[in-house]
Amino acid sequence: MSGHSKWAKIKRAKGVTDQKRGALFTKLSKNITLAAKEGGPDPDSNFSLRLAIDKGKLVNMPADNIDRAIKKAVGGDDKTKMEKLSYEAMAHNGVAMVIDCQTDNTNRTVSEVKNTLETHGAKMASIGSVAWQFSEMGYIEIKPAKLKKAEKYGAEDVYLPVNFEETEMELMDIEGITDIVEGEALDDNGDSFKIFEAYTDKNSFFKVVKEIESKGLKILSYEMIKKAKDTVDITEEYQEKVENLVETLEDMDDVDAVWLNIK
Question: Residue 139 in 3-state DSSP?
Fold first, then answer.
């Protein structure tokens, strides 16, 4: 929970109810529209838009929804003034939180976030008192598999497994990657497999993603995260309370992501 609650929630959406999936699609559509407004409608030249689109594709967001969200920005159909902002909070046991939002009504958003925190025994913190505990960086999940181009017309390209250690060496050679750790992911059958988790500094993120792709390696997911510089241990009982708070916050329309310093 130290930095990946956002992506984990999006991946879990494959198994949630239609109502919650619809709410997630709405939230992702806002992200796509805002990214297209800020950087243009071409995902090849607008990395923020590409990120937003790929998150939608990960949960099988219909292509029509994605196209409408982009056209909404380009066509000027969106009259609302959306803005990004972050709130900082503290809970018991030294648990620090950064809550990223996108909203067209800051008064509504701050009131809802504050009330939710207080209901769960946490409280808002002053600006800058928590944010310094987190570093913004790129996070990439890589499967040790390489692209095999289809040799026959009509066939699909496939990714074939490759040597785990050799993949690690390839990643270590990429300039801009600050750390590589081994992790696990689940396939569609629920079986686990080994992956690499690569971290980059903020400015190198786009370049590193392109470099990994140029090597033909399989990227499972990637996003900008806020990773805690130091983490705290909490009891299993209290962790359940924190998870309930995070879930409540993330279900709010205006909340885009919640970042924590829990180990």
Answer: strand
CATH topology of domain 135-226: Alpha-Beta Plaits (3.30.70)
Give dist(CA 101, CA 249) in Å, integer. 10
Instruction: Output the six-digit token pair for 37.
Output: 């407004």
Locate 216 and state its tokens: 């033909």
- Position 206 pLDDT exceeds 60: yes
| 255-260: strand order across its sheet | 123-125, 83-90, 96-103, 255-260
Q: Over the chain, what is the mean pLDDT?
A: 88
Strand partners, 246: none
* CB neighbours of residue 64 within 10 Å: 8
CATH architecture of the domain 83-133+228-260 equals: 2-Layer Sandwich (3.30)
In this prediction, residue 22 carries a pLDDT of 82
Strand partners, 258: 99
Q: Residue 122 has which token pair?
A: 């946490």
The alpha helices in the chain, defined as continuous H runs, are 5-12, 18-39, 47-58, 63-74, 106-119, 164-172, 205-214, 236-250
pLDDT (average), residues 11-26: 68
CA distance 86 to 255: 9
Q: Answer yes or no: is pLDDT of 24 > 70.
A: yes
